[in-house]
Amino acid sequence: MTVQVCADADEAVAGIRDGSTVLVGGFGMAGMPVELIDALIRQGASELTVVSNNAGNGDTGLAALLAKGRVRRIVCSFPRQSDSWVFDQLYREGRIELEVVPQGTLAERMRAAGAGIGAFFSPTGVGTPLAEGKETREIRGRTYVLEYPIKGDVALIGAHRADRMGNLVYRKTARNFGPVMATAANTVVAQVREIVEVGAIDPEVVVTPSIYVDRVVQTGVPA
Amino acid sequence: MTVQVCADADEAVAGIRDGSTVLVGGFGMAGMPVELIDALIRQGASELTVVSNNAGNGDTGLAALLAKGRVRRIVCSFPRQSDSWVFDQLYREGRIELEVVPQGTLAERMRAAGAGIGAFFSPTGVGTPLAEGKETREIRGRTYVLEYPIKGDVALIGAHRADRMGNLVYRKTARNFGPVMATAANTVVAQVREIVEVGAIDPEVVVTPSIYVDRVVQTGVPA
Amino acid sequence: MNASTSLVENLDRGPLSKDEMAALVARDIPHGSYVNLGIGQPTLVADHLPEGSGVVLHTENGMLNMGPAAAPGQVDPDLTNAGKIPVTELPGAAYFHHADSFAMMRGGHLDICVLGAFQVSAAGDLANWHTGARGAIPAVGGAMDLAIGAKKVFVMMTLFAKDGSPKLVRECSYPLTGLGCVDRVYTDLATFCVGPEGATVLETFGIPYDVLAARLDVPLTPANGARILPPGSS
Amino acid sequence: MNASTSLVENLDRGPLSKDEMAALVARDIPHGSYVNLGIGQPTLVADHLPEGSGVVLHTENGMLNMGPAAAPGQVDPDLTNAGKIPVTELPGAAYFHHADSFAMMRGGHLDICVLGAFQVSAAGDLANWHTGARGAIPAVGGAMDLAIGAKKVFVMMTLFAKDGSPKLVRECSYPLTGLGCVDRVYTDLATFCVGPEGATVLETFGIPYDVLAARLDVPLTPANGARILPPGSS
């Protein structure tokens, strides 16, 4: 359906419910939808499950959301970083649940959700603690572990540019999880540096087609 | 490894062995690697399994390869077309095996081969003759059928432009199966309309990164 | 029109032409929908979408916001629809590869697809790819992916085959395309909702409900349990 | 160097510095390889690739043909490596999203990846993501995908931990990253092939083979069953 071009980040995150699963784009700060996360803090939804590569850096963005006690559970590949003190403390105090997922499995499980795949056999993690309790199968001489989709109620992503239909392009390695998460959530919200007219993005270079995008908001300065 | 920039289509298809599985790009004529197929006919490999969306049109390209009796088995979604008389006759005479695969399953099975996925549960085809004999499973209330990867020994694809490293871009709907097949074969051969210097393709718009491409050949006229 | 509206018997018009059926389908596509139109008759629906409908057309061979068929001078062999017919692109279009295109379909992102059919069952089973005839060459294309992928599946077909047999049936006798996947059936004589609750008649065209029901070997319910003749009907 | 070469005991040099180990790894990367260098020590390998090596670096966060770390004036927050360090792009680069990047890894398209390790077993099992210590926060990142995905996995590590325990072991005691995935181990004291046949010593540095073997609790074989002192060695 037609994309909603929002006046500000608060409008863009309106209606997110307590208990939602929120996919949050970015790899470190590249592609991190900081303004949307700040708006989500103001919006107030709690008991969230957050799916993101990391578990927050420093005291802003995802770390600030965690610090407010809004996140019940985090699904990520790499929570522990030099500046992940907010998460570290919550985790050590038993105030947040953690599911560690290999990074490629995290991406592929979201892709599966977006692509209508019910489950898939992955070679990643076989024989490791992260495959414990999971179904395994030998296929053509190799062992695989069965992985299930991760679907979001909401995805918050950062992109470089949107047109007014919702087509998105990204910039350099800030692309990372954005295009995958955009396929894997019921409501996809993108913050972008600039919104351009329909037709201003070459159809050959669109990375996230408009069909996936529900709301866009321009934040910060066009690059 | 470093891409081989070939002098002509014959060099590009050299070494394809009898009995190979050959992925052939294109949807109808858009993206069809006609010059590579013609070279494959001259090259002489036989007993081939061909994986392609269609089973040849008219008397040229894939149809000509079939007419020469080089193809033992074809895996495709839509063999029967108004101008598929070469295939139709071979099939009715029992001289070619046919595996019909839903188009999206065909694409996804090749993607799985390229992405290291051992098998995946798809909702497509459940309860239909094309799922007969396949393992099914109910996951979260929906029934899925288990599908396995399709891997090629060789992929022959058509693209619009290559740089001398092997990065590829396509044009409009001629993109179709090319990018997927490029991930799914041991040797990937691309015919392109023009070969440009390294650096002449914007890294943001590369569709098939060089890592997937083994040989490129310039055919026809740059558009 | 939705299933809670009462049955309307249009006795002053019908059977509908293909274009009239296409116009009915077009009327039921909400503003801004992402839609895939199957090869053949469903393609006609595009001609009946009103100016400013905001409807975005998907083609399985890797494009969103496909435009009309190419005029003779516009033909670009790199730009075709699923039927291999040269088409055009509209502003805001996007191209993508086949795995992405079918991920979009299978993943439930298309709002509506419109397909032709050999048979549809009251439960919404679809048969539209293979007559099962001996010697026929099977060819499925993207039909199975569309049937199970789109949020809503609309079928456009004549209600009776050339031999007079009904195409809305208790159980499909032709090989299936998908199980319980059809939501709405648009025919020359009537429109139906189908699904787990069975078949509901929404509108008839040139035939009273009772006559229609007698010609079909399918338990039918009139929409909303009521039957309404539009004003001016005989 | 390949495993059919006879063992070389370099008694005039070693233990190797990190840079010397990185240079050894760089020497063994064939021209034109597509390579992923893990976070930390493996990053040093890039500095030892010769001009014109044709090696293309992959970073898991979605890029091929990554260039060196960004100089202070070049920093672009949209362009980092897997360690979140600002980097640069080389001509012929390509960007792609995370699912595509890990499909590339898992699908076996990278020729070589170079990783650090806590432990490697003689069979090639790798432990490099988690010490298993109580209270430690697990964080795996892309290590498991790289370990099972790349055609060849090279490990760079010191042969002994700070507490003196060997890191080349019969069985890893730390939680595994991957089973039987490591091909080559580069350490300060020796280089090894590991795998189903067990551990083979290719070269030693500053330590004779016999002394090395006595310090490890792993059955070892000298490469090609023969031991060769290079000319000029004492």
Descriptive keywords:
heterotetramer, A: 223 residues, alpha/beta, three-stranded antiparallel beta sheet, C: alpha/beta, twelve-stranded mixed beta sheet, three-stranded mixed beta sheet, 14% helix
Task: Write up this protein.
The complex is a heterotetramer, with 2 copies of chain A (223 residues) and 2 copies of chain C (234 residues). Chain A is built from 6 helices and 14 strands. Chain A has helices spanning 9-12, 34-43, 62-67, 85-92, 103-115, 178-183, and strands spanning 4-6, 21-24, 48-51, 71-76, 97-100, 119-122, 136-139, 142-147, 152-158, 161-163, 168-169, 185-192, 194-196, 215-218. In chain A, strands 1-14-12-9-2-3-4-5 form an 8-stranded parallel β-sheet, sandwiched between helices. A 3-stranded antiparallel β-sheet of chain A has the order 6-8-7. With 223 residues, chain A is of the alpha/beta class. Chain A is globular. The longest helix of chain A is centred in the middle third of the chain and has 13 residues, at 103-115. In chain C, a hairpin with a 5-residue loop joins strand 12 and strand 13 (199-205). In chain C, helix 2 (98-106) runs parallel beside helix 3 (143-149). In chain C, 52% of the residues are buried. Helices cover 14% and strands 27% of the residues of chain C. Chain C is α/β, with parallel strands linked by helices and 234 residues long. Chain C starts with 6 loop residues before the first strand and ends in a 6-residue tail after the last strand. Chain C contains 4 helices and 15 strands. The model of chain C has no long low-confidence stretch (mean pLDDT 93). In chain C, the strands form 2 sheets. In chain C, strands 1, 2, 3, 4, 5, 6, 9, 11, 12, 13, 14 and 15 form a 12-stranded mixed β-sheet that branches. The interface between A and D is large, with 48 and 42 residues.
